[in-house]
Write a structure and sequence with these properties.
Elements: E1 5-10, H1 17-22, E2 25-28, E3 31-34, E4 37-40, H2 47-53, E5 62-64, H3 68-78, E6 84-89, H4 97-108, E7 112-116, H5 124-136, H6 141-152, E8 155-160, H7 164-169, H8 175-183, E9 186-193, E10 196-204, H9 206-223, E11 225-233, H10 237-250, E12 256-260, H11 263-266, E13 274-281
Amino acid sequence: MTQRIALITDSTSSIDAETAARYNIHIVSLSVVFDNESYKENIEITTDEFYRRLPHEEVFPTTSQPSVGSFAELFEQLKGSYDAGIAVHISSHLSGTLQTAELAAEMAGFPLFTVDSKMGAGSIRPLLVRGAQLADEGSTPGEIQEQLKEMASHARGYLLLGSLEQAHKGGRISRGKLILGTLLKIHPLLTFDGGQIIPFEKIRTRKRAESRLLQIAEDAITSFRVENMSIIYTTTKEKAEVWKEKIQELSPGLSIHLCPLSPVIGVHGGAETMGIMWYEYG
């Protein structure tokens, strides 16, 4: 008999309401903390509200992962309707969310099969959609987990920071690098490696950095089989739409999804942070 399998993720995935409803995806929120007051992202503070508020905060906001209790409460509820769960979460190198989910599932006695996305944001949606398809086809939770882990190994992603000042406040770059970068108008491109965010290139002027980011994506399309691309944006949705049109002209059949960057991730890059993520084969 086919097992009833729940799909679970966290709010850094920025899963849109339509996708969440269509595949019955259960979302546990991370939080941002402004001046000792905590807000669950996308519930108690919207992405737009967060990025409007961020530049005006004197004290750098912090973030917190979901509590064991919030996960355990969800799993207790799911036990009545599902035999097991597939949980896809933000990279375990960026947050302890995945480990917290595993601990809570053990406490609740709920069979949970976790998948480390190795990134986050727009890379999570395709994994969940594929998981739903596999569940509908009758795959077991273990089979789904293995296939999604293999799929996650093909994820690629690049980010362009919106603010060196925010990166400095968050402890991502030193004061010296902030001053030098500001003077030279340097805009860092970052990439993902083994689940960690690492420097990729330093480019002078924002315009050149944006062009380089687009070029990286276009080069991948012409060199490999690329699927499930996501364009990540903060306060720059109109620009993201322009990028989508440009890339779509190069590859009309490619699925491209616009994905707002979660406040929990965006707190370190600031407004105007953008990125592109995709799955690459061959």
